[in-house]
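ABC transporter ATP-binding protein
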Amino acid sequence: MPRSNGSGPRSETAQRVEQAGAAHALDIEGVGRTFGAVVALADVSFSVGAGERRAVLGANGAGKTTLFNAITGDFPATSGRIRFFGEDVTDLPPHERIRRGLRRTYQHSLLFRGLTILDNLYLSCRGVTRRRYSLKRPGKDDPALRMAKELAHTVRLDHLADTPVSELAYGQQRQLEIGMALSGAPRFILFDEPAAGLSSVERRELIQILQALPRHIGYIIIEHDLDVALRVVDRVTIMHNGRLFKHGSPEEIETDPEVQRIYLGGGHG
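Structure:
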């Protein structure tokens, strides 16, 4: 099955990053997370290059979302270190990681349902600025408002900009979440199952949006739909029981018999 992310083969991207000596976006070093006696993550270590797009796959309970929570600080790591573009952020609260350019979406939509698309995008843009607590109404030249309108176009919702979130289809809500994650010039984004609950048409739209993102923005995507995940990444990491299981290219992972047996139920069409 052909792979395309609009930016050439993964090997070329990796070589450009390595040759330029660019910092890793993420360095995850021996990260663990326990909840009482339950070990959710155990000695997880890997790096993601600046601008790289990575899928983290695995069965339910593999530790994928727990890994995201450790990276963002929602549930900090209980062992190990996390570096973001070379800076140790292991002990920083979530808002400090956001200020450094880390963004995230969640499995379940977290939107202001009574507000419009443009309102949601404006608040997300305003929320990462120093003027976020200002009570002054935005003028037509307000930078955050301009950015909100640009993001509505980026995620193909500009024709619905004045529509309340409560009136949107589920797929449109997921598109809006991506737009909000793009606010404030992010350096790296974590997408947690963005295709969950989408129709086949909405999934194609999602693939196109992810492929069209600026190449300097790297991301990790957790996704159960491999027809989405394997088309929008350079590299794949498989997790199992809170540990790393295997790394590979999308082609290698898709055709790997062990991966098919454990995660794909014997095959994938």
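The two ends are 9 Å apart (CA to CA).
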